Amino acid sequence: MSYDVRDKTVLVTGANRGIGKVIVETLLKHGAAKVYAAVRNPYSAAALNEVHGDKVVPIELDLTKPDTIKAAADLASDVSLVINNAGVLRTSTALSEDAIEALQFEMEANVYGLIHIAQAFAPVLKANGGGAFVQLNSVVSMKCFPQFTTYCASKAAAYSVTQALSALLKEQGTAVLSVHPGPILTDMGHDAGLTEIAEPPEVVGEEIVAALKAGAAHAFPDSMAKQIGEAYQSFAENVVEADMSEG
């Protein structure tokens, strides 16, 4: 299902910095009418509001606090596009002493948060004609890098949930896009030690807009992502995106 962001009202989680901030700016550049900048602290999105005026509306949303997600869905009841960009990262291997703690922390935001977002906003999207739902996953949802074992596991789980949402939300006319960036030049990328190979976050924003317009199920924005995406394409088309019986 093709979706054009022009003249649309959008909600972006984690919109105050990094990829999320660039997504907001890219949406507005491509003609979005209004963007709810959903962040843990609305004051952190003040800079976006100052630049873009009332086209950006900061609202509180914390992926680990379901009540804030429900409140955001009530407030942003006019959205037809939801982009769940927010997420967390701990650098932990399967053999690290803090592996279980790190995985629990990442699962709460990256997976349980995604489910809470979907449950809160699916009825909103349906009421507004279907629209689209975008989930920021990662190349690590398809390929585990041992030094980031727990993060990879949480993103693999998020990708699995995204696949389910694609089928479930199709019934109400909602397009679902799973985005799989590689190393991106953000604070998270810096903390992970990936600055030297990272690409600018603008590639993610532009790829999301283009993939939505093309009606794609997956988006692979940067060089590493495209390499993995090319290798994954056949499996995605013949297995992930195929209409297969569960029986």
Describe the fold and architecture:
A seven-stranded parallel sheet has the order 3-2-1-4-5-6-7, sandwiched between helices. Helix 1 packs across helix 7 (202-214), helix 3 (66-75) runs parallel beside helix 4 and helix 4 packs parallel to helix 5. The longest helix is centred in the middle third of the chain and has 29 residues, at 99-127. The protein is built from eight helices and seven strands; from the N terminus they run βαβαβαβαβαβααβα. The protein has 247 residues and is α/β, with parallel strands linked by helices. The chain has helices at 18-29, 46-52, 66-75, 99-127, 149-170, 187-191, 202-214, 223-240; strands spanning 9-13, 34-39, 56-60, 81-84, 132-136, 175-179, 218-219. It is 47% helix and 13% strand. The radius of gyration is 17 Å and the shape is globular. It has one domain (9-240): Rossmann fold (3-Layer(aba) Sandwich), CATH 3.40.50.720.
